[in-house]
Specification:
The chain is mostly helical and 176 residues long. The termini are far apart.
Length: 176
């Protein structure tokens, strides 16, 4: 297989993985989460599980968009290289092995980036959610603990940490 055709196949691979990431948030949605999201009332208190779902969808959509963009760019380079570079032949077995490794690597990397993006978005949103519930009145500790459990799993409770000190640490982390 020539280099041009290989780039075309790699471009298609990026397109497929990108499309998967764009559709994943809808395809893999848990039915219990859908039911909960659909019965949240009028948004008071804010539906934290729905916010988490939307933040994950946002991260997945961004990843999918860039994968599709990169994949289409590689496919375009196939057409350009056809007229510029002499054909380079690559064995079919190498292409299959490289393609499988590429897909698995992309999935792992995208999962990692998704978690980083979610943590960033959730951190920004948590402060608003915590204070929005009571119209900027000092929120109670139970609400802060609930929001942290859903949106801030990276802020784990330290050993021997009581609720009050954990809440103070959460708030100080969010204000920083």
């Amino acid at each position: 297989m020539s280099l041009e055709k290989y780039l075309f196949v790699v471009g298609l691979t990026f397109d497929i993985v990108g499309a998967f990431y764009l559709a994943q948030s809808f395809i893999t949605k848990d039915l219990d989460e859908l039911i909960y999201e659909g019965t949240s009332g009028y948004g008071h208190p804010p539906n934290v599980r729905y916010i988490k779902s939307v933040l994950l969808q946002k991260a997945e959509a961004q990843i999918g968009f860039f994968l599709l963009l990169f994949g289409f760019s590689l496919q375009s380079s196939d057409y350009l290289l056809t007229y510029v570079v002499s054909p380079i032949i690559i064995p079919f077995t190498w292409i299959m092995v490289i393609s499988v490794v590429l897909v698995l690597s992309l999935l792992v990397i995208c999962r990692f980036i998704r978690e980083l993006l979610f943590a960033r978005y959730a951190r920004k949103m948590s402060f608003k959610v915590i204070y929005k519930r009571n119209n900027d009145i000092e929120p109670d500790d139970n609400w802060i603990l609930f929001v942290a459990k859903i949106l801030l799993p990276q802020l784990k409770r330290q050993p021997n940490e009581d609720d009050e000190s954990y809440v103070k640490r959460i708030l100080s982390e969010l204000k920083a």
